Amino acid sequence: MRSAERIALHLSVENPAAARDFVRTLSDALDKISACPLCKGVSENGELCDICKDASRAPNILCVVERASDISAIERSGAWKGKYHVLGGKLSPIHKIGPEALNLSSLAQRLSGEENIKEIILALSNDIEGEATCHYIQSKIVADKLVNVTRIGFGLPSGSQLGFADPVTIKSALDSRKELH
User: Fold this and answer.
1) pTM (global) more than 0.90
2) pLDDT tens by residue, 105-116
3) What fold, for 55-151?
4) Where are the beta strands (DSSP E) in the chain?
5) Are 120 and 89 in contact (CB under 8 A)?
6) 30-45 residues labelled b (16+ CB within 10 A) or e (exposed)
């Protein structure tokens, strides 16, 4: 918050012309950027996003994420070449976010539709709400469909030391272990 405040003060006091350009650019972006009609990721002018239009991506595997910004994080890794589905959050009774507030019905439609989805990878947060959302998807959305459901692994960040990790991260790392070949 302090950084945003500093930037706002700098632009408004020291460089008002740049501030006006920034506001104009932001306004233009708000007019052009919208949710992709298929995956709910970031799109321009209401059209399919570049990922949904990309025929070279695996067409029948979906990576389910909480937010559109999660797509960028996964794309930066270069590890995923499939399609996405953005839920728009996660179940949270404390915050009064139920299944109807998420893009779960559109996920169910995609699983029953022409895309012939064979697998969904649940890339949701490693917290109580993320786990509850994964359980809900598996039991209510995917239960009667011939779709394989997997969950991303969690564990220690690359380059970190075990002694600095919290107990939940260590437990996740142990639970997500895989066999060496």
Assistant:
1) no
2) 999 999 998 899
3) Dna Topoisomerase Vi A Subunit; Chain: A, domain 2 (3.40.1360)
4) 33-35, 42-44, 58-65, 82-86, 119-123, 148-151
5) no
6) eeeeebbebbbbbbee
